[in-house]
Amino acid sequence: MLVNGKPQRTIWLDPDDPAKVCIIDQRALPFEWIVESLLTVSDAARAIREMHVRGAPLIGVTAAFGVYLAALESTSNVFLSEAGNWLKHTRPTAVDLFYAVDRALRAVLAIPEGPDRVRIARNTALEMAEESVRSCRQIGTHGLPLIRKISQEKGGGPVHILTHCNAGWLACIDYGTALSPIYLAQEEGISMHIWVDETRPRNQGARLTAFELEQQGIPYSVIVDNAGGHLMQQGMVDLVLVGSDRTTLHGDVANKIGTYLKALAAFDNQVPFYVALPGTSIDPSLTDGMRTIPVEQRGAVEVKSIEGWDGRKRTEVLLTPSNTPAVNYGFDITPARLVTGLITERGICRASEEGILTLFPEWKSP
Ligand code: MRU
């Protein structure tokens, strides 16, 4: 998508030195634009753990590039397997990470040790990045008719869409998941206004989704996380579109903390609640999301303080008494019964085993 009018992706190889993997340090957005080079697998692991990159699809592709960087360091079986383990221990919830590491390692370990492994690792990572771009574009194509229909029903009046966290191109390689149908609707000239949940504690909505929509020229307003229910009661939300970090075979959806409350409010107010996600964010090995999806807990400091721009630099300030205890669950699980549908690269399905298997029949147990 566009940054200052120019097309931009979230991860790429340095054209002058393909041994460097370039990323945007998303911790600095929207205040500063910092491009960072990853040179080793531990750089890649740190970038994921410390959230220089974030969002399930981007975490997965960064991990695949991490396997490539590992292969540049050593092509031995022992080192590569260990590197895969480091990468898998960076963040627990987004299933794309595990899928990506397993796929990259499978490709690399299938051939004998030596320089060919570097080539295979690089090509696999590049291929996964391209596949993600295609999937996200397809998610947009399949989600667009939902927005078009509401627009027609409203006689062309603005479609009000609420989104949570950042499930745009910054969370992927390009287009995004939940924001992809919105970008395609914009191309079609559909009038829209997006309600952007700020998404405490790290404010991915206020910082990243707002940045994306601003750059794309799509009308939006940032709202506090608690405002969505009120807006829905007032008939000010036509559609909720969110992403997912891991969805079970039964359609239970793990997404950024606060998503579940939006789903409850949407259900109570008969507002359609759709989850947009690529197949790489579905975990066919899990069924009951409430009990089985690992929910990341992050440091209390993210709850107790907040970072902003003081006019010259990013600054963090304390929000609570300094000794206040705080807990920080990163994700919650929205049960399938609250989800109107899943928008995937293969089409829209019900959030159920039957629905998912219609689109992904390869996961049927023999
Ligand atoms: O903790 P993050 O920033 O990695 O959170 C993940 C997300 O970006 C969201 O939960 C998103 O809605 C799903 S990933 C497209």
Features:
Four Helix Bundle (Hemerythrin (Met), subunit A); 4-stranded mixed β-sheet; globular; binds 5-S-methyl-1-O-phosphono-5-thio-D-ribulose; 366 residues; 2 domains; alpha/beta; Rossmann fold
Secondary structure elements and pairings:
Layout lengths: L1 E2 L2 E2 L3 E4 L2 E8 L10 E4 L2 H9 L6 H18 L3 H12 L7 H14 L5 H39 L5 E5 L16 H8 L4 E6 L6 H13 L3 E4 L4 H6 L5 E4 L3 E3 L4 E4 L2 H10 L4 E4 L5 E2 L5 H4 L8 H4 E5 L4 E5 L12 E4 L6 E4 L2 E3 L3 H7 L7
Parallel strand pairs: 6-7, 6-9, 7-8, 9-12, 10-13, 12-17
Antiparallel strand pairs: 1-2, 3-4, 4-5, 10-11, 11-16, 14-15, 17-18
The structure holds 5-S-methyl-1-O-phosphono-5-thio-D-ribulose.
Structure notes:
The chain contains 12 helices and 18 strands. By secondary structure, it is α/β, with parallel strands linked by helices. It folds into 2 domains: 130 residues, Four Helix Bundle (Hemerythrin (Met), subunit A), CATH 1.20.120; 225 residues, Translation initiation factor eif-2b, domain 2 (Rossmann fold, 3-Layer(aba) Sandwich). The termini are far apart. Bound molecules: 5-S-methyl-1-O-phosphono-5-thio-D-ribulose (MRU).
Computed structural class: alpha/beta
What ligands can be seen in this structure? 5-S-methyl-1-O-phosphono-5-thio-D-ribulose
Largest sheet: 7 strands, mixed
* Low-pLDDT windows of residues: none
Which fold name is given in CATH as the topology of the largest domain?
Answer: Rossmann fold
CATH superfamily of the largest domain: Translation initiation factor eif-2b, domain 2
Strand element count = 18
Report how far apart the termini are. Answer: 41 Å
Radius of gyration: 20 Å
Spatial strand order of the main sheet: 8-7-6-9-12-17-18
Helix fraction, binned, reads 25-40%
> Which range does the strand content fall in?
15-25%
Series of secondary-structure elements, N-terminal to C-terminal: EEEEEHHHHHEHEHEHEEEHEEHHEEEEEH
CATH architecture of the largest domain: 3-Layer(aba) Sandwich
Sum up the overall morphology in one term. globular
Number of discrete domains:
2
Count of DSSP helices?
12
The average pLDDT value, as a whole number, equals 98
The CATH top-level class label of the largest domain: Alpha Beta
